[in-house]
Each structure stands twice: as structure tokens, then as C-alpha cells.
Amino acid sequence: MSDALFAGIRPERLEKLRAREAKRFAAGRPKAKAALADGADVFLDGVPLHWMKDWPMPHLPLISKAKGARITDIDGYEIDDFCLGDTGSMFGHSPPPVAKAIKAQAGRGLTYMLPSEDALEAGRLLSDRFGALRWQIATTATDANRFAIRVARAVTGRPKILVFNGSYHGTVDDVMVELVDGVTCNRQGLLGQVADLSQGAVCVEFNDLAGVEAALAKGDVAAILTEPVMTNSCMVLPVAGFHDGLRSLSRRYGALLIIDETHTISSGLGGYTAVHSLSPDMFVVGKCVAGGMPTAVWGMTEAVAERYAVANAERAPGHSGMGTTLSANPMQFACLKANLAEVMTAKAYAHMEKLAERLSAGLAQVIDRVAAPWHVVRVGARVEFICAPGPLHNGSDAAHAHQPAVEAALHVALLNRGCLIAT
Ligand SMILES: Cc1ncc(COP(=O)(O)O)c(C=O)c1O
What we know:
By secondary structure, this protein is of the alpha/beta class. Helices cover 39% and strands 16% of the residues. The chain has helices spanning 11-27, 30-39, 96-106, 117-130, 141-156, 209-216, 242-252, 271-275, 302-314, 330-343, 346-369, 395-401, 404-416; strands spanning 63-67, 70-73, 78-81, 134-138, 160-164, 177-180, 183-186, 201-204, 221-226, 256-260, 282-285, 296-300, 375-379, 382-386, 419-420. A seven-stranded mixed beta sheet has the order 4-12-11-10-9-5-8, sandwiched between helices. A four-stranded mixed beta sheet has the order 1-2-3-15. A two-stranded antiparallel ribbon has the order 6-7. Helix 1 (11-27) runs parallel beside helix 13 and helix 3 (96-106) runs antiparallel to helix 10 (330-343). The two termini are 24 Å apart. 41% of the residues are buried. Pyridoxal-5'-phosphate binds at residues 86, 140-142, 145, 168-170, 227, 232, 260, 262-263, 286-287.
């Protein structure tokens, strides 16, 4: 590709597109603009969560409601939502069974640090859906991963967590590392991080079993923490044999395998793990698992649970460093139960899969027709078009494939045509 092109687009055409679409967006949203001017400055940087600064629109829309796969903003636009709260609403906004459960539980108490009958039913559903693991409930997938890492370190007595370059498992400080010239370093851009994270983490490229083996052979890795498919940069699929290799290497070198299904739950019933018969030692899924109610679940095999019991019995009394006050509250269980039993069903997956297949084939056809150097990747219900040739092999490839200027212009252009995609 020539330097004078961005993903096949001439810079002057790209700038024209960006400017035209930004103008159109802003001209159509006077109410949001006025409301933000009136009230947003109480927030740091004008937004309640600084990630919202990442959206490429000239200013944010204000959302008045969201239902199913559609959101409505205060300027009256109805938007097809392909972002779905970055998958927190993967099964639709406010699924009716979950909304009903929230309403019922709202009159029965929101949090009391004791289990309900729903908790037992949700536990049965979790084992049914994801395998006979020993479960714990957290509030975010970040927390669930943090706690899984604690257990892995406690039961193996080893310090390091192996993660893949370009991966993301939430704002888990311990694994915020990347590869720079083949060396594990703190991620650039971390705010206020003073620790040398390479003391507790090692970074390897995805799909590189030789690299994984070299890291494991040092004998200090407690666990491999990975998504089955890398979804947090441009999507990277595992090559044939990669997951089998991870499993056998982790066993050979005494490290645990933690599979984070938070995004790949899009793969089908039970997530990528069930669809592709993986056998992790620990399993994490958050975001959409309770239909959008802040909830994450993490589980471990019986064998790990036995080792945990020993480590737990041997530790000194006091705080374990795991858990948060509002976790495992009755509202989470009411929503988990409703979502697992009535929303995240085989029927729902079949529907989503069919639509995703259609979207993916349509995108590929257009890319083909205009001979763009782009490609499409799909993991069940999750579809991504990537403004670079594929397939991508690892996190470094994925970082190079990103075309921020092209993606930002397209994002606003699509929004102006009624489609919201993830940033
Ligand atoms: C694979 C994966 N794990 C964990 C997380 C963290 O989720 P949360 O931000 O809800 O803690 C994310 C967030 O994007 C994720 O993609």
C-alpha cells in the first residue's frame, strides 16, 4: 500500500469525508449540544467516564432510551446499535425477562451480603451452561480476572501471569504489559503506574506456541490468561492447534489456563469454550452475563478448588485481597437467573448467528467489489471489518492494522446513517 493512502483511501478524500460527516452530525444534534454545554462541565474532562472521550463524534449524543438493538437519542434519532455497550448488552438492551426480574427484586432488597434462592438457581444454571465449575460472583470482568489471578498465584506459588501482546482483560493492573522489541514492559499510556509490572507478568505474541513454551519453561508462570480469540485490538483468530498447544504446554509446565470469555461469549451457547471443547482450569465471563446488570462470574475446576482450599487454610487470618462489597447481591442473581434461563438461549444464539453471517457476507462482498485492502472477521455473533488485509496473526499485526483516521471518519459516517459501531 502506498504512503499516500490510508487503507486504500487518499488522504484528501478521507479529510473531506471526515469534515462533511462531522458537520452533518453536529448540525443534526442541537439539543445534545445545548444540554452538554449546560451540564457536562461538572465531570472531569466533560464526561462521566473518561473512555467516552474516545468516541470520534464532534460531541456526544445524549441517549434517552435503549431497547433491543436500538438506541434513541434526545435529538430524536433512532440508531441501530452494533456496539451494544461494548457487548454489555450483547443480548439486547433491557431484555424483557431481565427487566421483569429487576422490577421484582427491586421491592425485595438490593444488597444484603447473604444468598437468596435465586443464587442457588443461578449457580445451577452457570454449571449447566459453562461446565461443572466452582463459581464465584464479581461485579466486573476486571474484578473476576483479578481474583482468578490471585487464586492462580496462591495455588501454584508462582508470581507470573502470561498474557498475549495486545490483549485486554479489563483494568487489571497486574497484566497491563506489552512487548517492546521482544521484552515485556509496562503498557505505554498507563496513568500513575509506578510498579514494574514485568515482575508479575510476561507477554508473548498470540499464536506463538514456541514463545509460550519458552516463557513457561522458566518455571515462574502461575497461569496463562487469554481470550480464545483476541478481540480487543483488531480481531485475531487462533491458528489451528493453538488452543490444544496452550492446554498441553500449560499442563506440562504446571501453569493454570484461565479462559476469559467476556467477549467471545458471542461464539455460541457456553461460549467459545463449549463450542470448541476447550478445557480451562478457570473460566471468566462478565459484561452481558446478567443481561447488562453489572455482574461477572468466575469459576474453577474441582481440582483447582481443592488446591485453593489448601492455600486458603494455610494463609494467615485477615483479608484475602479478593471480593467487593456489592458483589453477589440478590439483584445480580435475579438478573443472572433470568438471563441464563430465558435470554442467552440456543434460540437467541441461532438468531444472532444468522444475522451476523449475513452481515459478514455482505461486508465481504462490498469489500471485494471495490477491491479494498480490507477484510472481515466473525466470531459467532461478533463481526468486525478491519481496514487492512488479513488474516491477522497476533497483537503486533493487529496494532499495525488499525487505521484510526479511517475508522473515526467511517464511525461518524455510519452513525449519520443510523448505525452505531464500537470505537
Ligand atoms: C476480554 C475482556 N475481559 C475483561 C474485560 C473487562 O470488563 P469490565 O470493563 O466490565 O471489567 C474486557 C473489557 O472490555 C474484555 O474485553
